[in-house]
Amino acid sequence: MKPKAVLHPSGSYRFLPAISAYSAGFAASEGYEITALRLLNCPTLASGLERIDQEIERRGLPASALAGLQLRSPGSFSFEAFGKFNDEYRQLLINRGLIIDGVNPISRTNVIPIHQKPVAPSIAVAFIVHPSQGHGGSDFVIAGAAEISGDLGPENIVARGDASQEGLSLKVECVLDIMRERLHALEASDESPTTINVYTEHEILGLSEKIEIKLPTTSRNGFTTWLTKPPVEELEFEMDCSSYSKWVVI
After folding, report:
1. Which of 87, 164, 171, 243 is deepest in the core (most CB within 10 A)?
2. DSSP H helical segments within the chain, as ranges?
3. Which domains, ranges and CATH numbers included, belong to the chain?
């Protein structure tokens, strides 16, 4: 099923409902923009959310200003363990009143660093939506996606167990198609992302060309490869992309 954007009750952004743990992305409404909050030293989930709460309150914004997170995890989850983690993570959002009639509007990327792993799931970046001094309405964040075609389950992994160059190429094409589908659902174009992140531990032949064909903005803005891997066992490649107005360190 193709994602379809839903307006957040605050009116400040549209989001793409996905699963109970996260949305597939969001876009600021007219008159609003997105700021990325980079959390110094990647605090654990609970302490990181408290820091974000304080920053949102300091800015005089409602709790609903939080619209996306980028996480770092210490190790791979089985699909079953990932489900349990997602339930615990979702409860933290429920406690903050961020879940809307059972639907989670908060986008998420979650990856595992190959080196310098955190001791527990941690927050690297938070995205907040707030009124813009200008026209606004052009910022967006696409959540992280790995090479799963369909529902979250091992049977839907593209080229499962195949880390050959051919298998990795198929995985890349799957993820790029997901990125484009989400962009289009938020009425953004393939030329729109100004930040593109690639998460993998593999050297993939022709990766730059593959990305540039599907996301031509890469020829101007490039992309960043993080030496990481997706959070679930057997997954090998993940991406996210975005365009936001500013970033600050907190």
Report:
1. 171
2. 45-58, 79-95, 165-185, 207-214, 218-221
3. 6-249 (3.30.1330.40)
